[in-house]
Design goal:
Protein name: Calcineurin-like phosphoesterase domain-containing protein
Organism: Alysiella filiformis DSM 16848
Domain Calcineurin-like phosphoesterase: 155-315
Shape: elongated
Helix content: 40-55%
Distance between the termini: 50 Å
Number of domains: 2
GO molecular function: hydrolase activity
Strand content: 15-25%
Number of strands: 12
Pfam family, one: Metallophos
CATH superfamily of the largest domain: Metallo-dependent phosphatases
């Protein structure tokens, strides 16, 4: 996979670069239209300025001269994309109004005047919706019946991709704790990307007391995701000091009822194959697997795994990212069943890079697991 990506890198890079030029041109043209710029030199100057900002930020992000540059570039690209989407919506609105029988919109100047009022509202609305989706989590629910007996049902909360850092912190943790308390969950599973690359912001903002509020009667279990692996030792220590058990190729027998099995992200070169990891558990009993990425679905469906919880792909986070991840993954989001294995893939509780979501929403999954019903 890595070799394939590197071989395709020039094509990917050129495609992204060309898209940024197009979006930059669209922004400059939109600003010139909004500002009623009539002089060619003014419009060209504006275009050159926007192109300079776009390409300059891309270059700085590529060179990685400062860790905040990537986030700034990501926010700028989001601005370009949201303005483009607003442009498309404004074009649709314009055509609807033009074809209406309202006399006002048969006058091109009056139509343009109203569109100049509508366009900024569309952009602001898009950012507002993106912010809401990022910071106001939804609660998703699913009830599953596994193919093994259980003495009693268990209610699981699955929370992935919290990305604790500069933009996700104490307030979101408190909100999460409230959700878990209201839902009266028995168990919490957190399959990866707990931190946003390091514990700098987590430590500076004193998030530990807030992470400690994440509690459940049968325990809270986590695994490391791709954003946790680089600083894995420090992140593991921080998470475990808050009372959350981090599983690294481990299987834990919980309450004499079921196994919780956790594996680190595949960036950990030493992680065990899933089949080998399952040898640490009694596969005749219920098996709940935490695996950060939703890959290997078809292989895992052939193993005696009853439930796999995953995250990582964020359901694309920003439209049309959800279409892209749908194409790249067997199960990109939500609940699905393959063979006797139930899969739940979450869009995540936090976000990556930018505090916006469009076409996805922050969420917590509540999974009610019931055992196989016996006849007689």
């Amino acid at each position: 996979m890595k070799f394939y990506f590197m071989s395709q890198f020039p094509i990917i890079f050129f495609t992204v670069w060309a898209a940024v030029q197009f979006l930059s041109f669209n922004l400059a043209r939109g600003l010139a239209w909004q500002g009623k710029m009539r002089h060619v030199w003014a419009r060209r100057g504006l275009l050159l300025m926007v192109l300079a900002i776009s390409n300059g930020l891309m270059l700085l992000a590529f060179l990685r001269l400062h860790h905040h540059i990537f986030r700034i570039n990501a926010i700028w690209l989001t601005v370009l994309w949201f303005v483009f989407l607003a442009t498309v919506l404004a074009w649709i609105v314009a055509n609807i109004l033009r074809r209406s029988r309202v006399a006002r919109y048969q006058n091109a100047d009056l139509l343009q005047a109203d569109l100049r009022k509508i366009a900024p509202v569309l952009v602001v609305a898009m950012f507002g919706l993106g912010w809401f989706n990022a910071y106001v989590p939804a609660v998703r629910r699913v009830v599953i019946e596994i193919d093994k007996p259980m003495a009693q049902p268990v209610r699981i909360a699955m929370v992935a991709d919290t990305h604790l850092g500069v933009l996700v912190g104490k307030r979101q943790l408190d909100k999460l704790a409230n959700i878990l308390n209201e839902e009266k969950v028995d168990l919490v599973l957190m399959p990866g990307d707990i931190m946003d690359d390091d514990i700098a912001a987590y430590t500076a903002e004193n998030m530990k007391p807030h992470l400690q509020k994440i509690r459940a009667p049968l325990g809270v279990f986590a695994t490391l995701g791709n954003h946790d692996v680089r600083e894995g030792k420090h992140i593991t220590q921080a998470i475990e000091s808050a009372g959350i058990r981090v599983l690294r190729d481990e299987a834990v027998w919980v309450d004499n009822r079921f196994w919780v099995v956790g594996r680190p992200d595949n960036l950990d070169a030493e992680r065990l194959p899933t089949a080998q990891l399952l040898q640490k558990a009694n596969v005749q009993q219920p098996i709940f697997l935490l695996d950060h990425r939703p890959d290997g679905v078809l292989a895992h469906a052939k193993l005696p795994i009853d439930l796999q919880v995953s995250g990582h792909v964020h359901n694309g986070q920003i439209f049309p990212g959800n279409w892209v991840v749908r194409f790249l993954n067997e199960i990109h989001y939500g609940y699905a069943k393959r063979g006797n294995t139930h899969f739940v893939v979450t869009s995540g509780y936090g976000f990556w890079g930018i505090p916006f979501r469009l076409g996805s929403q922050a969420e917590v999954w509540i999974i009610d697991v019931q055992g196989k019903k016996t006849v007689g």
